Amino acid sequence: MGEPMPLWGVLLLPIGLLLLGYGAAAWSAMLTARAGGAPASAAASAPARETARLLVEQRRTIPGADTVLWRLGGAAVPVAAILSVLVLPVAGRSAADLSVGVVWFNAMEVLIWVAVWTVGWGADSVWGLVGAYRFLVQGLAYALPHMFALTTAALGAGSLRVSDIVQAQEGVWFAALMPVAFGVYLLSAMAMAYWGPFDQAVARDLAGGAGAELAGVDRLVFRAGRYLMLTAAAAMAVPLFLGGGAGPLLPEWTWTVLKAAAVLALLVWLGHRLPTVRMDRFTEVGWVVLIPATLLQALVVAIFALVV
Amino acid sequence: MDVTTWLLRRARPRPFVVTALGGTGLRIAVEDELRRRSWQPALTPVAADMLVVCGPSDGELAQVLDRVWEQIPEPRVRVLLDARDDVARSLNEGSAALAESAEIPRREPPLADSAHPAPDPSGHGGAGSGRHEDSGAADASAHSEEHGAHDRSEGAGSAAADEHGGHSGHDMHGGGAEMPGGLPMAERAADRDGLTLDRLHAELGPALPDWPAGLRVSLTLQGDVVHDAAASVVGAPPADTARFWTAPHLGGRERGGLSAEAAAALDGMQRLLAVAGWSDAAATGRRLRDDLLRRGPRETWRAQCRRWTRTVRRSRLLRWSTDGLGSVAPDAPEALRGDVTARWKRRLDTIEAAAAQKGAAPTPTDAGTAAQCALDLLPSLLAGQELAAVRLIVASLDPDLEAPVADGAEAHHG
After folding, report:
1. For residue B117, what are the β-bridge partners?
2. Within a domain: residue A62?
3. Beta B15-19 vs B50-54: how paired, if at all?
4. Which of A265-269, B50-54, B160-164 has the least mean pLDDT?
5. Which regions span the lipid bilayer (chain A) (predicted)?
6. Which of B50, B69, B102 is the last residue of a domain?
7. Looking only at Cα atoms, what is the longest distance across chain A?
8. Is the backbone of residue B223 left (phi > 0), alpha (psi -120 to 50) or beta?
9. How far, in Å, CA of A7 to CA of B320, rounded?
10. Is A1 domain-assigned?
């Protein structure tokens, strides 16, 4: 149990998340521009320009929509992302070093399920509804391997407290000790932010899926929330698998930010490298391959923890 | 200068591009222009602030366009293009109009009971007559550019009702109950497992990104699974329109048969990749297509093309998504045979032949016959598939509906 984070640190946390999230969106726009042969440097401002456009755009009302759920769902995405990093230790201190920090992180990710479902369902649209269906199926496919990956990290440290997990990696990082769990965590990080190959819920073939009906500031919040969630998932990989702030020369918080940015850049790049995976095909892999693999990984780690 | 004006001047437009039959050349010019400006096209009218219409719009398409226009939030601008227009200049004018829209009119949301009856051609006895709202900000269209949900033209009630009654398969409202908003409930029918589930009617096209021009597919859906499907053609190009891909001139350049076929294959391929959720490969495909049309198959183009086809062909994930979908019997025209994977691999073969400059020009496929055959096959191919598969199957068949008309015109002129 480390010292609590000072108040200014708690205030900086969402700002840092926003900055990293913007970086992810800009990096994504640059990759798109490069693939299309357009100058990549000009694309860095694309998210800012889109933000400007959405801020002045008219919001949308739909007769027959479940407006409360629809608006709440969109707003819940960034809220869940910001709440999930409360347990993220930066320079050895977290905003809330809960004794069940890993469970807290997982609970916020489940909030995303609710959010995407209500956004899709509330909008009274075929696109939205089908996108929401797809996200629930995706949840069924990735959530268990994801939870086993988190459990494995907790097993290795013998604690659900995130700061304990960081301390347990002083010798060797968990990414090296439990590579299968780390790999599955990276996959499920993309899946929880419905990003890259797991973007079927908001896919192009559904004209935007769950978010198809959002206009103006609602669309901005929903889309920004997705980048925040991806950033939060990438940042949590640092204390769980990459030794937290451990590193030579630079101060601890710098290492945390650098590692988080590296994981985030990798996830964004992967999302651009790979086509969308159809969930009706992936579910089988999730259950037949990933769950046994993560269970075996947990078993190996448990034995290792007993012996060592 | 107030904040709104400041933001408007910094915003980058997001066009929603609709292609009419006969507008393929314009669509490609627009896509080329957008790609070079890094303007991201919108997937739905709701996400757009600019409506770009490529090619002639006849009566039926004009109605669709009106509904699309209704859904675009303010501030918004319409850009209608015909063959004589300078695409870049038209887009600039549209963009300038958006940046200067100092007074953004705020449209009031409609009252649901301002709906007016629409014809009910389907004979599905839905709850209540088909209707759609006349609305500014609200959606009234089932044209899947956007809202399958509110199909009023089928008399099926709305997906709203479907969603409320049907997302769990339980009827929570009782038949004929009215939804908030005064929308009627959906009807129900047995699904493939014999469960009684709500049905809703949705139309894909003709104003839908990554979708063949002029195609409309009317679906009856249960959840995201197609119960039955019907395909039709919306609009007709003017009689003097030549099929874009066989037109002898484009931008004043002669094009060999090999290059024209390869450009057509690249166009079909970029569309399929976009639907398969591989935006970057799709963007590269568009760039290769535009470079080929503009300058012909140069050496750098060949190298890039070989690299791109290799990447796409090797993608296990793509094959995993498309294997075994939409199998067509071997008695169909050659371009349609096999499953989705076989069809896109054939396209890659055509592109590679152009990149390697090997072999004679392929025998030009009879696009008219293939398109007609694809239209006839679609209902049977789509029944029982879910929406993702529907989009992949349509993109792999990619019927060129400008072709039959063009062929007919040629036959007509002797």
Report:
1. B131
2. yes
3. parallel
4. B160-164
5. 68-91, 98-120, 140-160, 172-195, 228-247, 253-272, 284-307
6. B102
7. 63
8. left
9. 50
10. no
Q: Which residues, numbered 38 to 57 in chain A, qualify as contacts with chain B under a Cβ-Cβ cut-off of 8 Å?
A: 38-39, 42-43, 46, 48-50, 52-53, 55-57
Asked if residue B221 and residue B74 are part of one domain, the reply reads no
* Selection from B233, B227, B168 nearest residue B199 by Cα: B227
Query: If DSSP states are collapsed to H, E and C, what string results for A145-159?
Result: HHHHHHHHHHHHHCC
Which residues of chain A have a CB within 8 Å of the CB of B180? 64
Q: What is the pLDDT of residue A83?
A: 94
The answer as to whether B159 is a domain residue is no
Q: Is A178 inside any structural domain?
A: yes
Instruction: Count Cβ atoms within 10 A of the Cβ of residue A251 and give its class: 0-12 exposed, 13-18 middle, 19 or more buried.
Output: exposed
**Domain check: are B98 and B213 in the same one?**
no
Tell whether B87 and B228 lie within a shared domain: no
Assigned domain for A55 exists: yes
CA distance B23 to A63: 34
Query: Which residues in chain A come in under a pLDDT of 70?
Result: 1-2
Identity of residue B127:
A
Amino acid at A117: W
Residue B85 pLDDT more than 70? yes
Q: Residue B122: what pLDDT?
A: 31
Residues B98 and B237 in one domain: no
Q: Are the beta carbons of B277 and A124 separated by less than 8 Å?
A: no
* Secondary structure (3-state) at A100: coil
Structural domain includes residue B164: no
Residue of B nearest to A56 (CA): B4
Contacts for A77 with CB less than 8 Å, ≥ 6 apart: A112, A115, A116, A119, A221, A222, A225, A226, A228, A229
B383 and B234 within one domain: yes
Report if residue B138 sits inside a domain.
Answer: no
Shared domain for B232 and B97, answered yes or no, is: no
Cβ pair A63:B208 closer than 8 A: no
Closest Cα to residue A29, out of B38, B270, B210? B38
Domain count, chain A: 1
B350: phi then psi, degrees, rounded to nearest 5: -60, -45
The shortest C-alpha distance from B188 to chain A (Å) reads 16
- What is the structure's pLDDT at B179? 54
The rounded distance, in Å, linking the Cα atoms of B59 and B275 is: 29
Domain CATH for B77 = 3.40.50.12280
Long-range contacts of B28-31 (CB under 8 A, 24+ apart): B28/B244, B28/B267, B28/B289, B28/B290, B28/B293, B29/B87, B30/B54, B30/B81, B30/B87, B30/B91, B31/B286, B31/B290
Question: How far out from the chain centre does Cα A258 lie?
Answer: 17
* Structure token digits, residue B84: 């004589």
Q: Tell me the residue length of chain B.
A: 414
- Mark whether B91 and B234 lie in a shared domain: no
**Cα dihedral B245, B250, B255, B261 in deg (nearest 10):** -20
For an interface test with A, the pick among B44, B172, B323 (most A C-beta atoms closer than 10 Å) comes out as B44
Last residue of a domain, one of B102, B127, B154: B102
| 3-state class (DSSP) for residue B219 | strand
Range of the domain at A142: 7-307
Interface membership of A59 toward B (CB under 8 Å): yes
In terms of Cα–Cα distance, which of B72, B265, B340 is closest to A213? B72
Whether residue B60 is predicted with pLDDT greater than 90 in this model: the reply is no
What is the domain extent for residue B48?
3-102
Q: Which residues of B touch A50 (CB under 8 A)?
A: 11-12, 14, 40
- Inform me whether the pLDDT recorded for B314 exceeds 60: yes
- Residue A48 is predicted with a pLDDT of 93
The answer to whether the beta carbons of residues B178 and B185 sit under 8 Å apart is yes
What is the count of structural domains for chain B?
A: 2
A272 contacts in B (CB within 8 Å)?
A: 279-280
Cβ separation B49–A33 shorter than 8 A:
no
Examine the domain organization and report whether B353 and B226 are in the same domain: yes
Torsion B166-B168-B170-B172 (CA) sign: negative
